[in-house]
Amino acid sequence: MIRPVASLTLLTLIACVVCQDAVSIGESADAAVSGTPVIAVWDAVPYQMIDKPFQVGVVAFHETGCRVDFTVLQPADAAGTSHDSVKWGESVAQATFNKRTGAWEYYITVDPGKLDDGPFAVQAEAVPLGEGHLSTRLKELPLYANSGGTLGPRAPVWADCTVGDDESGDGTEAKPLETIRQALKVAGDGGTVYLKAGKDYSAQSLGGGKRHD
Questions:
Q1: What is the C-alpha separation between 136 and 146, in angstroms, rounded?
Q2: Closest CA to 123 of 213, 26, 15
Q3: How is domain 4-145 classified at the CATH fold level?
Q4: Which residues of 123-140 are buried (b: 16+ CB within 10 A; e: fewer)?
Q5: How far is CA 72 from CA 89, 106, 120, 151, in A?
Q6: Residue 177: enclosing H or E segment and its boundaries?
Q7: Is the fold of 4-145 the same as that of 153-213?
Q8: What is the largest CA-CA distance in the chain?
Q9: Does residue 30 or residue 151 have the better pLDDT?
Q10: Taking a C-beta distance cutoff of 8 angstroms, is the pair 148, 48 a contact?
Q11: Cα 167 to Cα 138, 157, 175, 178, 200, distances in angstroms
C-alpha cells in the first residue's frame, strides 16, 4: 500500500539533503534576499576529456520554477596562466530529457571544436522565477577539450585503500588515491582506474544524492 504521508516525508528529506549540498557547493547571488534557494546540482563528472559534442547538465528545482544560466570559460593562453575568457553563454529556461544521462535536466551542448585543446570550465547559476528567492551558483565544472586529439591518452589512476590518500595522492602508482570515488573522479569518463589489493574499498556514495558530483 502506498502511504502518501511517508512518501511526502521521504521527498522532503531528499529535498533537504540536496538543498544542503547546493548551499555548501554554491552561494547566493544576492545575500540580502531571504527567500528559498534553488535546489541545484551538476549531473556531470568533472575533469572529463571530450572530443565530440557533450551535453553538460544541471538538475534543478524550485517552488516557483527556475532557469539555469551557463557560461563556458577557457584560459586565454595554452599554459592556463592568464585569466579565463568567456567563450559563450547560454540560458536554459526549461528542463528537457538529456539522452546522455537519462535524466530530465537543464543542459547545454558543449562543442569542443569551438575550443582550443586543453582545460576549460563551465559555470552554472540556477535562478528562481519568483521574486524574493535565492539563486544558487554551483562550483565551476572543470573539463578538457580534445577535438584536435593533441592531449593524447591519459595515464591510469591508481587507488590503494591501505596506504593511499585522497588529499596528498595524485593518482600515480607511487602516490595513489585512497577511495574508488576519488579515483573515478580524477580518471573521468573513459579513464582507467587500477586498484591495489585491499579489503576496505567501498562502492558507497559513488553516485546519487548529496555526494553526487
A1: 30
A2: 26
A3: Immunoglobulin-like (2.60.40)
A4: bbbbbbeeeebbbbbbee
A5: 6, 15, 7, 20
A6: none
A7: no
A8: 61
A9: 151
A10: no
A11: 22, 14, 10, 9, 18
Label residue 22 exposed, middle or buried (CB < 10 Å: 0-12, 13-18, 19+).
buried
Instruction: Look at domain 153-213 and name its CATH class.
Output: alpha beta
Question: What would the grid cell of residue 14 be?
Answer: 531528499
User: According to the model, what pLDDT value does residue 151 have?
Assistant: 80
**pLDDT on residue 191:** 75
Confidence of residue 130 (pLDDT cuts 50, 70, 90): very high
Report how far residue 97's alpha carbon sits from residue 44's, in angstroms, rounded to the nearest whole number: 14
Instruction: Please state whether beta strands 136-137 and 118-128 pair in parallel, antiparallel, or not at all (unpaired).
Output: antiparallel
Distance in angstroms (rounded) separating the CA atoms of residues 17 and 142: 24
* Residue 79 pLDDT > 60: no
Residue whose C-alpha cell is 544541471: 58
pLDDT in tens, 83-111: 568 889 999 999 999 999 999 999 999 99
